[in-house]
Specification:
- About 30% of the residues lie in helices and about 45% in strands.
- It contains four helices and six strands; from the N terminus they run ααββαββββα.
- β5 and β6 form a beta hairpin.
- It is globular and about 45 Å long.
- It starts with a helix and ends with a helix.
Length: about 130
């Protein structure tokens, strides 16, 4: 399967709430770099991250555009809109009251030997905070 197909499947799994499906696409030593906070390494820390996210947020991604370059078939990027509901107050963030939000985000992937080996996500945190206050 090509890298772009793997990334598309990753987002399909995300939107269907299939965390195990997402994890099945990851290298066991996946590097997971989030917008805020320390990078994580490995599928166990990714599972813990997803459990935390599912507790605090209910999100769906839309208008997903997946991009790659012919010169680098193992690196893929995606831009999308995150529509969500802030369910439970997350550490250091405003109080959650089931606020709805919509923010643009981007993720960079690296795929090695048919598995996602790096996920790096960026979004505008101050804009998100403004949306939930």
């Amino acid at each position: 399967m090509e890298a772009t197909e793997i990334v598309k499947k990753y987002f399909d799994y995300f939107n269907s709430g299939n965390n195990e499906g997402m994890i099945s696409l990851l290298d066991k030593d996946v590097a997971h770099e989030v917008n805020q906070g320390d990078p994580r390494k490995g599928t166990q820390l990714f599972k813990e991250f997803m459990k935390h996210m599912d507790t605090c947020y209910k999100e769906n991604l839309r208008d997903i555009v997946i991009m790659s370059s012919p010169s680098s078939k193992n690196r893929v990027s995606a831009e999308f809109i995150v529509d969500g509901i802030y369910l439970k107050t997350d550490n250091g963030l405003p109080e959650a009251r089931n606020q709805k939000y919509s923010v643009r985000a981007g993720t960079f992937f690296e795929v090695s030997d048919g598995k996602i080996s790096r996920i790096t996500t960026y979004y505008n945190l101050p804009l998100w905070i403004k949306a939930v206050q």
